[in-house]
Amino acid sequence: LEKKAHLRNKIRSAFVYPVSVGVVCIGILGCLLIFVVPVFIKLYKSLHVELPWPTLFLVNLSYMLRGWGVFVLIGGAAGVWLIGRTLKDPKVRRRWDRFKLDMPLLGKLNRLILVSRFIRPFAMLISVGLSVIDALRLAGRIAANEKMAEIAGELEKSARAGNPVGRALKAHSVFPPVIVQMAASGEQVGRLADMLGKGVDILDRDIERIIDSLVIKLEPALTLVMGLVIGLVLMGVYLPMFDYMTY
Predict the structure, then answer these.
(1) Is 133 left (phi over 0), alpha (psi -120 to 50) or beta?
(2) Which residue of 22, 39, 127, 187 has the smallest Cβ count within 10 Å?
(3) What is the DSSP string of 24-42?
(4) Maximum distance among all alpha carbons in the chain?
(5) CA separation (Å) from 143 to 116, 146, 189, 247?
(6) Are 51 and 44 in contact (CB under 8 A)?
C-alpha cells in the first residue's frame, strides 16, 4: 500500500507540475494585459505613435479582458463543467479512455499505469481467496477505465473457458511481457498472486523512471515556452517605442 501511495503521489505531482506552470504563465500574462498594457496605450496615444499589428492585437486583447474578463472566467468555468459532463457519457468516456492509451509521449506511461492499477488489485483479491473470475470482474471496476473494463470482461470469459491467466493476458497487447511471464510462472508454481505482485513492482519502477525522464524534459521546455510567450508580449508592447525612437 505504501508503494502504491508513493507511486500515486509521484504520478499526481508529475501531472500537476505542467498545469501549475501553465496557470502561472496565464496569471503573468493576465497581469501584463490588464495592468501594464493600458499604461503603454495611454503613452502611445499621447505621442501619436502608429501601432504595429502585434501591439494592436495586445491592445484589443487587453480591452477584452478589462471589459469582459468576468464573462471570460464564467465561460472558462462553463467550458470545464461541460467537458466534465461530456466525459461522463459512456460513449465519449470509452473513446477518451482508448485515446489516452494511444497518446503520443504519454501513451506508454498511461498503459503501464493502467496495467498496474488493474493487476495489483487482481493479485490482492486472489491472494485473499477470491476466485479468478470474481477478482477479474472487481479489478476491472477498480481500474476505472472503459477499455480495461472491456479487457477484464474478455479475460473473465477466457477464465470461464478454463484458459490459464497467462495465456489470456498474452492475447491483449496492453499487458507488457513481464506481466505475462510472471502470470505464467506463478500459475506453474501455484503462486500466481505473489508473482503478479512482483511483476507490478517491476512495472512501478518503470513508471517512476518514465515519469522522472518526462519531468526532466518538461522543466526546460515549459520554462522556455513560458519565457518565449511573455517575451513576445513584452516585445509587442515595446515595438512602437522602438519605432518612435528611430524617427
Answers:
(1) alpha
(2) 39
(3) HHHHHHHHIIIIIHHHHHH
(4) 87
(5) 9, 9, 27, 66
(6) yes
Query: Contact 122/139 with Cβ under 8 angstroms?
Result: yes
Q: Answer for the pair 93, 87: CB distance below 8 angstroms, yes or no.
A: yes
Distance CA 119, CA 116 (A): 5
Specify the pTM.
0.75
Classify residue 209 as exposed, middle or buried by CB count within 10 Å of its CB (0-12, 13-18, 19+). exposed
In this structure, the chain runs to a length of 247
The DSSP letter of residue 89 is: S
